[in-house]
Specification:
Mean pLDDT: 82
Number of helices: 11
């Protein structure tokens, strides 16, 4: 059974996102633009903070290169846009691929989904909280995370739209899987693996921040496999006898 902490987190994301959608239509365009830029700056700051968890920048580099190649081969970004178009066509009245701006809307929807999903799922609190909930039933960490995600969901949905609410599904699947497989995860995911996953995810959040600030649109979706590559590279490096030295103070 999925832990209570994860269900609470899913609920706060949906609630925060729904409130954000209600408030968003009442905000002037200039205010929404300023909020979006503020969220972009915050996303970059969080990403930079998380990326400093790395003990070896070469592991992050290798993860991004391998993950990028794999992601481009799978065309993850395009599939996310197709998902956004499919969901929009069934949830937003009048949304149709025949409309002139349908492609832009589906792209915005998928970007909102991807940005919120990464924000809610990247970080040690997600991994440690889910494992703690699964092993001991203590969901204190996830409770704190739920409150933070609820407010973040409200802010993001008010400017980015309904794609943010769909990220609750990512939280359910990802955190739920970690909670259900807590014994396995705690045995397999070492501290170095968790740190490099976090750092790599942080770099992806910086990429998303660039998009929110309208500086550069990075296909961050195609870099998602890098988060999986990071612990695999750590395992290979450690098997060769190299030690992880931890983040630089």
């Amino acid at each position: 059974m999925v832990g209570l902490g994860t269900l609470m987190n899913v609920g706060t994301v949906i609630l925060g996102g729904a409130l954000g959608l209600l408030l968003g239509s009442r905000l002037p365009e200039r205010m929404r633009e300023t909020i979006m830029h503020g969220l972009g700056l915050l996303t970059m700051v969080i990403g930079i903070q998380l990326s400093l968890e790395t003990g070896s920048i070469l592991i992050v580099l290798g993860s991004l290169l391998m993950g990028g190649v794999f992601g481009e081969w799978l065309q993850i970004e395009r599939r996310l846009e197709q998902l956004g178009s499919w969901v929009q066509s069934r949830t937003v009245r009048g949304a149709s691929s025949q409309e002139p701006n349908a492609s832009d809307r589906s792209s915005a929807f998928s970007q909102a989904f991807l940005t919120a999903s990464l924000l809610f799922c990247v970080g040690p609190m997600t991994i440690l909280g889910s494992i703690q909930d699964g092993l001991t039933g203590d969901y204190t960490l996830l409770t704190v995370k739920s409150v933070l995600d609820g407010f973040a969901g409200l802010a993001f949905a008010s400017t980015m739209g309904p794609g943010v609410i769909l990220s609750a599904l990512t939280v359910l699947v990802y955190q739920g899987a970690l909670t259900l497989g807590a014994g396995w995860a705690s045995a397999v995911l070492t501290d170095p693996m968790t740190a490099e996953m976090t750092a790599t995810g942080g770099v992806l959040m910086v990429a998303l921040g660039l998009g929110l600030l309208e500086i550069k649109r990075v296909r961050a979706g195609n870099l998602l496999p890098a988060v999986v590559m990071a612990p695999m590279i750590v395992a290979i490096v450690e098997s060769l006898g190299y030690l992880w030295r931890g983040p630089t103070p």
